[in-house]
Every structure is written in structure tokens, then in C-alpha cells.
Write a structure and sequence with these properties.
The protein is built from ten helices and seven strands. It is an alpha+beta fold. It has two domains: 100 residues, Ubiquitin-like (UB roll); 138 residues, Alpha-helical ferredoxin (Fumarate Reductase Iron-sulfur Protein, Chain B, domain 2, Orthogonal Bundle), CATH 1.10.1060.10. The strands form two sheets. It has a five-stranded mixed sheet with strand order 2-1-5-3-4. A two-stranded antiparallel ribbon has the order 6-7. Strand 1 and strand 2 form a beta hairpin. The protein is elongated, with a radius of gyration of 21 Å.
Length: 246
């Protein structure tokens, strides 16, 4: 058993500071275990959000050593032992208390996206490649780490103009469903601001479910927006026959 120093943010939306705690580290310990140790033995008022401790609920999102991670999935032995382990709340969202942030904005964005609407008169038949393509997007656990790492939200705070990677994933799961009949490309362009994404792939790098957010969701959606609004042939066809999902 050895000791590690955790440098944890303590405060609220009015402000705060980093506080150091010495925590005994055991084999297989994760950052969330260390936070629970602090709660149990040093600061019982330390606020943290968690639920399953199995990397499936998405609750324990934080920034560990400056990188958005799930605390329950980040092993202490994977972090440098010769320096303090910093544990801060997600930067892209307002702090409620300590490590707990207000992520309610995400659910407001979610309500903007029209749900699945089946094509009328189409046989309900899907091929395995179609199933595989949309199934990947259903793996999202809404930890919002991709939202936190996205520079459009994190550094520029463009929440009024930009939906963020998580909701491009949700939209992709609908748009690429072979039985869905809605066309959401105008919403992607005007309400979710997909054009602001410059394909850094940072969202893909932090996804705990290893969803290929950039390659499989964002890029195909950007291509659809370009085809509809900037390709002259497609624009003429849509003017003649109407804006139908193709």
C-alpha cells in the first residue's frame, strides 16, 4: 500500500480552490475509489455524482489530470505516481458543487431533435450492415465527456449555436436508420450548427464506449448537409421534388 495525493476542486459556481488529500492506494483502485476514501475519512461533504461504478451510467464524469474521463474507469496505477492527481469538474458545464456539474443544457438540446418516424408503406426489414451501423450510436451512455472536450463548447461556449458531439451521434442514429423517414439536415445546419465542428477527433478519443463519433457520425452528417445546401444538382432536384429524405 502506498499513498497518493489527490488535488480535488472544492467549491461551487461562486468560486473555489484545489485542496490536497493524501489517500492510501491499493491494487486495482480507481479514482472514484479514492474520492470515496476522501468522503469516508477526511471530507464527508465532498460532492460527487456516481451510480453504477461499472462505466455504464455515465455519472462520474470529471477531468482527471486535465483530461475528461470516467472516474470509475480510470485506474490509479495508470496515472503518474510522482505528482498529484488532479480531479476537477467538467469545464464545459457550470459547477453546482465540488465535482458535480449542471448538465441540464444537454437535455434541452435533446428535445430539439425529432424522434424516429417510420417511412410510410415500407416493409420493416433491415439488413445486418444497417443494424451494425446504427447500433454503434446506441452505445452512448451520455457521460457528456465528448461535450466537455469539444472546443466549441469548452473554450468558446457556443451552446446557443452548437449541439455538440453527443447529439450528432443521436441524430446520426436516426438519419442513418433505413426505416426512418424524416430529413434532419436543415436542423443540423441551422439549429445544431454542425458546420462549427472542425473534425479534431478529440470527442472520439475520450469516448468510454469507443464510438467512432467523428468518422461514423459527424463526417457523414456534414456530407449530407453539404450535399443538400451546397451541391447545385441536389439543390435543383430538391426544389423540383421537395425536401425528402434520400
Amino acid at each position: 500500500m502506498a499513498d497518493a495525493t489527490l488535488r480535488v476542486f472544492r467549491g461551487d459556481r461562486e468560486g473555489g480552490k484545489a485542496v490536497d488529500y493524501k489517500v492510501p492506494v491499493t491494487e486495482g483502485m480507481v479514482v472514484l475509489d479514492a474520492i470515496h476514501s476522501i468522503q469516508a475519512h477526511q471530507s464527508p461533504d465532498l460532492a460527487v455524482r456516481w451510480n453504477c461504478k461499472a462505466a455504464k451510467c455515465g455519472s462520474c464524469s470529471a477531468e482527471v489530470n486535465g483530461r475528461p474521463r470516467l472516474m470509475c474507469k480510470t485506474r490509479m496505477d495508470s496515472l503518474p505516481s510522482d505528482q498529484p492527481v488532479t480531479v476537477f469538474p467538467m469545464k464545459a458545464f457550470p459547477v453546482i458543487k465540488d465535482l458535480v456539474t449542471d448538465v441540464s443544457w444537454n437535455y434541452k438540446v435533446n428535445k430539439k431533435i425529432p424522434p424516429f418516424q417510420p417511412r410510410p408503406g415500407v416493409e420493416w426489414k433491415m439488413y445486418q450492415p444497417d443494424v451494425d451501423r446504427v447500433q454503434e450510436f446506441r452505445k452512448c451512455i451520455e457521460c457528456f465527456l465528448c461535450q466537455d472536450v469539444c472546443h466549441v463548447l469548452r473554450d468558446h461556449d457556443k451552446k446557443e449555436q452548437f449541439g455538440g458531439p453527443r447529439f450528432f451521434v443521436r441524430t446520426a442514429g436516426l438519419e442513418m436508420h433505413p426505416l426512418d423517414g424524416l430529413d434532419r439536415t436543415r436542423m443540423l445546419k441551422e439549429e445544431l450548427g454542425i458546420g462549427l465542428c472542425n473534425i479534431t477527433k478529440c470527442c472520439t478519443e475520450v469516448c468510454p464506449e469507443e464510438i467512432h463519433i467523428t468518422d461514423n457520425a459527424i463526417i457523414p452528417l456534414k456530407e449530407r448537409v453539404v450535399d443538400e445546401f451546397y451541391d447545385p444538382v441536389t439543390m435543383i432536384v430538391r426544389r423540383i421534388f421537395g425536401a425528402k429524405k434520400i
